[in-house]
Fold this sequence. Notes:
Layout: E1 6-10, E2 13-18, H1 20-25, H2 30-35, E3 42-49, E4 52-55, E5 60-61, E6 75-79, E7 85-100, E8 105-111, E9 114-120, E10 131-135, E11 142-145
Antiparallel strand pairs: 1-2, 3-4, 3-6, 4-5, 6-11, 7-8, 7-10, 8-9
Amino acid sequence: xxxxxxxxxHDGVVEQVGAPxxxxxRPANLFVAGFIxxxxxxxxxxxxxxxxxxxxxGEMLAIPLSAKVADGQPVVLGIRPEHxxxxxxxxxxxxxxxxxxxxxxxxxxxxxxxxxxxxxxxRISAKPGERxxxxxxxxxxxxxxxxSGRRLS
Length: 153
């Protein structure tokens, strides 16, 4: 936030150069996606299939993908915590921890066989163990190649 341009390096290799929000909004790869932002971007591994996305834990998520990816191609979905919303048509998600933080509520939930972080500006009345439907707009989902880690969308 103090610079006009940031250089993100990993093991001596420049991964991406750009303005802070450019790196946040369009990370070039999985390293940058996980490095920029707090809490970090959620990364869910799996494969696209007809009707949604199959996580590597075998759960089908009804998430439309904006990138052109082949059925069965290993990909990683990247979802920023603040891009989740509670919506009746969302994916049923188990609440693990809920942390009211004054103006925000941080939630740890289990989706696709793994824990994810979600941030809400509203107060959420859910309790650990409850299931709530979470959804993300398809245009806010980042898609990375599961092998190279490079951005696909």
